[in-house]
Amino acid sequence: MSKELILKLKPYLSEKIWGWEKWVLACHEEGNCTVQEGIYEGQKLSEILGCGSDFPILNKIIRAEDTLSVQVHPNDEYAKRVENANGKTECWYILEAEEGATLVSGIKKGLNKEKLRNIIKEGKLEDYLERIKIKSGDFIYIPAGTVHAIEAGVKLIEVQQNSNITYRLHDWGRGREIHIEKSLDVIDYEGENKGGKIDNFSKLETPYFNVEKIIVHNNYMDKVNEDFHSYTVICGEGILKANNGQIELKEEETIYISKGIEYTIEGDMELIKTSI
């Protein structure tokens, strides 16, 4: 669609046994956000943009009241060959974390497919997980192939490829399907993808998306030279002005801005900006 668009989005809510996900920027067959206000109010984002699985990213706010499964995602080559879907590289910006909170990000060094298969058979996987301490404001990069798990007491913004392919290695006895062999196929055993915490995060550029933390005091001006810009508010509130109109922005709200638009954000807030 060539028309210039500024859309305030209503998320798709997905309830989970461990908490919930709000898909705040989503054009996926399993979840689609809608427009919250304006002439497109109530319409699905995918219908307005004329897209679906070809939309590049999927952004979420995740609340973990219990620990998620220990899981891994395939890269594009494996996912397209085996699942006829996109791979899944993702990253997390931590909104809230209980004191002493940790996340699983990676496995111990020196493992390979056979060693890890035996560890899993012996029920000792938990002893070989790498955990990192986290707090509000931390940023973690989880490229495809990285074993990971969001643990209890954490709320975060997730930016990821537009994919819902997840392979579970371990699910804490909850009885859901486990995908051992596929997981073993796609794990990055050597840590070559260099996932983990990014200290002093300001911007991450990947082959799939760019993520940037924007801090607004008074005003911030920009133009969409890429396919689009999207913002999710971390904290604070303000307004976005463009095309002789304005939209209010509050905590955890998300906005989509199409190519070619010049805009100004006014207020006192912090935001996660995504682009391609």
How far is the N terminus from the C terminus?
A: 17 Å
Q: Sheet with the most strands?
A: 8 strands, antiparallel
Give the radius of gyration: 19 Å
| SS field, number of helical segments | 4
What would the average pLDDT be, to the nearest integer? 96
Bin the helical content. Answer: 10-25%
Low-confidence stretches: none
Tell me the overall shape: globular
Briefly note the structural class of the backbone: mainly beta
> What is the ordering of alpha helices and beta strands?
EEEEEEHEEHEEHEEEEEHEEEEEEE
Q: Strand tally, please? A: 22
Oligomer: single chain
The proportion of residues in beta strands is over 45%
Short overview:
It is globular, with a radius of gyration of 19 Å. The protein has helices at residues 45-49, 76-82, 113-121, 180-186, and strands spanning 6-10, 12-16, 19-25, 27-28, 31-32, 34-35, 57-64, 70-72, 90-97, 102-107, 129-133, 139-142, 148-150, 154-161, 167-170, 196-197, 203-205, 210-223, 228-242, 245-249, 254-258, 262-275.
What are the main properties of this structure?
276 residues; mainly beta; 7-stranded antiparallel beta sheet; 4 helices; 10% helix; 47% strand
Tell me what you see in this structure:
By secondary structure, the protein is mostly beta strands. It has helices at 45-49, 76-82, 113-121, 180-186, and strands spanning 6-10, 12-16, 19-25, 27-28, 31-32, 34-35, 57-64, 70-72, 90-97, 102-107, 129-133, 139-142, 148-150, 154-161, 167-170, 196-197, 203-205, 210-223, 228-242, 245-249, 254-258, 262-275. Strand 17 and strand 18 form a beta hairpin.
